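Lab manual, section 2.4: Encoding a predicted structure.

Procedure: take the sequence of the chain (77 residues), apply the prediction step described in section 2.3, and record the output as structure tokens. A sample record is shown.
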Amino acid sequence: MVQGDARYTLDAPPLPAIETRLAFIAGYAEDSLQRLEALLAKGGAWWEQEIVFVDTRRSRAWIWARRIAHTAHRRCA
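Recorded output:
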């Protein structure tokens, strides 16, 4: 997650009561919705705010996009 005040708490247990593929997917979807709601509540000014990234300052939006792009290209075969 983006550093700073982007923290949120998930109340769900780490494993579903019945460990099936569908239960894991449903749990992941529920947790993802909570993350999305927390990020949407931040508003545009929060995303535009510059914070330290490595040795420079970048907007949170830039850092978020960079992290997604960086992990995505690692998954390509």
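Check your result against the sample. DSSP finds three helices and two strands in the chain.
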